[in-house]
Amino acid sequence: MKKIVKKIKNFKYRIFFDENISENIFFKNYLDNISKTFVIITSKNIKEKISIKIFNLLQKINKKVLFIEIEDDETNKNLKTAEHIYKQMLENNFLKDTYIISIGGGVISDISGFVASTYMRGIGYIIIPTTYLAASDAAIGGKNSLDCDIGKNMIGTIYHPKAVFIDFDNFKFLKENEIKYGGSEIFKIALVNNKKLFKKILQSKDISKEILIESIKSKLKIIKKDQNDKNFRKILNFGHTIAHAIEKESNYKISHAKAVYLGIFIESYISYKKKLLSFKNYLKISTYLRDNDLLDNISTMNIDNLIIHISLDKKNVFENILLSLLKKIGKSVYNVRIDKKFIKNCLTRCLEVK
Ligand SMILES: NC(=O)c1ccc[n+]([C@@H]2O[C@H](COP(=O)([O-])OP(=O)(O)OC[C@H]3O[C@@H](n4cnc5c(N)ncnc54)[C@H](O)[C@@H]3O)[C@@H](O)[C@H]2O)c1
Q: Which of 82, 140, 183, 200 has the fewest CB atoms lying closer than 10 Å?
């Protein structure tokens, strides 16, 4: 099994890659050694094709396993779902030595990470991400979050998984849209910190293994500099203030992956209008997004409502809207203070011309 190991403070990040991991001896031994009891958190969509194989493997090596299936659309990424999981684990007598195995996209890994970090004050967990977005981003870096009525990702912790196992076979079950938009976080990572990766993306039609691995390495490098999101890691928020507002305003009908492309488009425009990014670079980004048909039509969205969501973003400080923006392709800045009126003008322009 190929692996990336990155030491971040006193913690070693371990990310393994292979095909068909449920048949892999290393994977089997890994699970055999870490615990006697496991809880698999997964969803209906992936249960039969993916998760059941891991369940069977755990049974074969005589582990106590509980299978918890949840609805994995964004509207269920909340405390109610977390409570449902805690309850099942408690009722079935799962104690502190339990390991959670998260099998799914970013919704499943966010919920699983949150539950792992809070159940009995914290238990071990591993992630098997099954979407490109989760493999490139949600599973990497230890952030987890739940949504609440007020906004997206408002509740959460930073709690690292003991390991991440990426099985390339799992991506073959993805629907067309999950593949089409699944590279949005990779595109973001390239824009904020890796110009070479940006060039590779422009030259490639798909999300290749090489692109995925390069993107993970880039993210780990950023996290190594600022594990707790106090300063440099904030560059990863590029595109996200607008993306989260769009998701919320659409009542989560627009997926996170799609919204991130829109957020990148609008925040690139803001970067250009703030005289941080050149027009040439803004054009390079917007042309890629248009040519690949990655911008959903949101021209009817209510801009005043978007501004309300943006004003409630958790990255703001003392009512100041703070954005992470681009200076160049591969270079970014964080904590840029932006006036509400300025954002409103940019939003109006972007929604018109898109
Ligand atoms: N914690 C972080 O650092 C972080 C980073 C980025 C995104 N996120 C979060 O991740 C979530 C988005 O994740 P996502 O894009 O993976 O979406 P998702 O988890 O909603 O999954 C998208 C859909 O694909 C299905 N699916 C997943 N794997 C599949 C497979 N292999 N085959 C077929 N169908 C499959 C799911 O059942 C779901 O219907 C958002 O909630 C976002 O906030 C978190």
A: 200
